[in-house]
Amino acid sequence: MSKSSLRSLPGDRPESRWDFRAAFDRSPVATFLFDDATRACLEANKAAELLTAFSRAELLDRRIEDLHTRERRDRALKYFQRFRQEPGFTYDDLKLETKDGRVVPVEVRGMNLGFDERKIILVYVRDITEERLLQGEVLFQNHKLTTLNALSSAIRNSMELHQILSGSLRVIMEASGSVYGEVLIYDEESATFQIAAVRGEGFSEPPREPLSAADCELANRVLAKGEPILLDSLAHEPRLSKLLRGQSGIGVAAGVPLRNKDRVMGVMQLAIATDQLFPTFDFELFTSIGVQIGMAADNAVLFQRTVRQAKQIQVLNNIARIISSSLQIEEVFDSFANEMEKLFDFDRLLVAFLDSSGSYLRIFASGARTDSGWGMESLIPLVGTGPGWTVLNETHFIHPDTKEEKKFIEDQFLYEDGIRSYILLPIHSRGKIVGTFGLGSRRRAGFSEKDLPLLTQLSKQISTAIENVKLYQQTKETSILDDVSSLFNSRYFHQALDRELKLVARHKSRLSLIFMDLDKFKQINDVHGHLRGSKVLREVGFLLRAAIRETDIAARYGGDEFVVILPDTDYPAAKRLGERMRQLVVRTTYLKEEGINARIGASIGVATFPNEAPTKDELISLADERMYRDKKENHRRAASSPKDS
Q1: What number of other Cβ atoms are within 10 A of residue 448's Cβ?
Q2: What is the CATH number assigned to the segment(s) 481-640?
Q3: From residue 507, how far is each of 499, 510, 568 by CA, in Å?
């Protein structure tokens, strides 16, 4: 449409014809005239040229849909039809594509002029880029404010560290569109991270095991830098990548320092969905979030430390009262263990004192949620064992992982029984070391140097009980223990067997008995003397206690014969345990420190009550008979085997 065509528009007064043209050209809004039938552009003003980067000549005859991006053209046609029916219809959900390739969000308003037979559609197009940016910023700022308010509510409603961290993690994950999140607390002493809170599909409780610094690359970087870090791929964080393997739609991973003043106490790690608001990651917001959580967490730690100190004082007072109130070992131990559980998360407790010879530790108290080879009255040699090392070196010992390192004799048994870590401390009395005190845990690195002050206090309290129970202990030792092997003596064995058989009858259960006789032991006595023979018997006694369960009862039956009562144990299980005892005895080298390096054998006999033997005497007789049958078979095999040349 030319200028002359504009002059011929119906309704123009002659004196104002050129005013319309001038107004059309001067309009700051891009203005177009489209032919209703062909949708072709008939006219465009200067603002339209500026907006589209096309010249007026290039715009003429261009259809309205050609001005929009390809994926939105069908929608543009739909809206064009509505211009005919709805005067002033406006849309703002399309984008205009310029000559130079820019995509511009626009607001479009159209109306049907309807001149003569030819219908003309007047269209105003306005660039709303700035408005959209402003709207986005307003929405984003509102989102930030909402997030900070929600975070503040989650923080101020509790002084419990886990609740603060879990609540904060929930708020931040919802706000950031995260599919997984965790809070790692850094322990400077051990240089490890502990997952204190975790959220995500399939994740509910944080693991108890600490994480080494090498396992937490992102957290380490955040800790060192003290600022939020954004990773564009989980591939840069191997642990998270492995943990979230199979989860799709994760765009980025973020690490946020939890800071209070100049100290970073931990890191919040997030795996953020691709289609969420925060993939652009607002560092200012997340820095503020980290400071808020860090301050609240630090306050909670201080509060809980105060509460814990008050509880420690109460428990120490309770233990002092318990120790001084009774001479009954079982009663004292049960109450002592119950009080200890208020302060420490442990699965095994050990208290042992030096015996009269000064070469062994005798267990005074032992308790475990896991099965255990060392129970009450067991003897522990000083050389080669953790408790012995503690006494000999007059210092504490912390074993972080029995799976990774077997430092002492008992570590393999402890690991097999489920104990991954333990701590041992010496017990002092009147200026001398008189014993050892220890705790064990199913967790790796369950104890650290920070536990020492309180455990040292407890070990001092334990020492005050020594004089109270010493006479009782000595009296009991002389009446029920064998002097040589330090296992129970034959008299106590018969008392215990009578008691256990009554329990079997009452509960309609079963009981097995193991007889063991040492082979080649007489040669040691004859060649090296009875004193050295007694040392071998004592070491065999220690090995048997290490091999059996805490509920089992081991005794020296006489000479080089030993017997073990196995409550609630069937024949196959007893046979396996007997074989374990045999292997321990035959694989051990005796009298090594004297340069003798002796080896012995063992014969085993097993019988089960009431299945095989309905009375006590028949049970003992059958087990003894099978032991001698095993001894004959061992001698036969030894005689028929080829001799070394």
Answers
A1: 16
A2: 3.30.70.270
A3: 13, 9, 10
Listed by start position, the domains of the chain span 3-127, 134-291, 326-475, 481-640
HEC per residue, 98-164: CCCCCEEEEEEEEEECCECCECEEEEEEEECHHHHHHHHHHHHHHHHHHHHHHHHHHHHCCCCHHHH
Nearest CA to 101 among 55, 69, 73, 57? 69
User: Using CA atoms, how far apart are residues 194 and 186, in angstroms rounded to an integer?
Assistant: 7
For the record, the structure tokens of 623 come out as 């087990």
Mean pLDDT by 10 residues, the chain (645 residues): 43 50 82 89 92 92 86 86 81 87 90 74 89 80 80 82 89 87 89 91 83 89 91 85 82 89 90 66 82 87 82 81 65 76 87 82 66 60 91 94 90 89 90 89 89 87 66 62 88 92 92 95 91 92 89 92 95 95 93 90 95 95 95 85 54
Terminal Cα-to-Cα distance of the chain (whole angstroms): 120
CATH no. for 326-475: 3.30.450.40
Longest dimension (CA), the chain: 143
124 pairs with which residues across the strands? 31, 109
Beta-ladder partners of 351: 365, 437
364 residue type, one letter: F
Residue 264's nearest CA partner among 240, 289, 290, 241 is 290
Contact in structure between 55 and 48 (CB atoms under 8 Å): no
**E strand intervals along 457-510:** none
Q: Which residues contact 122 (CB under 8 A, 6 or more apart)?
A: 31, 32, 33, 110, 111, 113
Q: Which residues pair with 107 in a beta bridge?
A: 126
pTM over 0.70: no
**Domain 3-127 falls under CATH 3.30.450.20:** yes
452 by Cβ neighbours in 10 Å (0-12 / 13-18 / 19+) ranks as middle
Helices and strands of the chain, counted as H and E runs: 20, 21
Alpha-carbon distance of 613 to 643, in angstroms, equals 40
